[in-house]
Amino acid sequence: MNFRTTEPEEVELNLTPLIDVVFLLLIFFMVTTTFEKDSKIKIELPTATSSRPETQENVIELLIDSKGNYYINKKEVVNSKPETLFRAMNVTLDQMETTPSLVITADANASYQSVITAMDIAGRVRLTNFSLATTQTERK
Asked: Residues 23-50: pLDDT tens digits?
């Protein structure tokens, strides 16, 4: 008896259905994903229970009084128009070697609009590292 040796057939794995399913899942996840919008201005909110940090040389202090007048490093800005504040901030930034941080100190009776204007101008002059100053509250 003569037995033939048969060579086993090669097993092929068809990947086409797998690739189709992966592409469909990719499309599904892309369509159903929600994207979070980051704001242009990132602020560091101050805590009211800690003490005020030591003053640094590379800090611009923007004060807003109760009437809405602006002061940059204790020098009064000519008027409270946003364009004037923008120019004054640019002049102050040109005098500094590195990008400083900004501390906004507003009077408790200052208008909300004047604080928002200051934050908007800070974003326009590319000052993204700023904080809002508060007073320390008494603990009971």
From this structure: 999 999 988 887 665 545 444 444 555 5
DSSP state of 97: S
Q: Is 44 exposed, middle or buried (0-12, 13-18, 19+ CB in 10 A)?
A: exposed
Which pTM value belongs to this model? 0.57
> What phi and psi, each to the nearest 5 degrees, are found at residue 139?
-90, 140
Backbone torsions φ then ψ of 80, nearest 5 degrees = -100, 20
**Residue 100 placed within a domain:** yes
Q: Which domain holds residue 88?
A: 43-132
Tell me the CATH number at 88.
Answer: 3.30.420.270
Q: Which of 109, 115, 139, 137 lies closest to 48, judged by CA?
A: 137
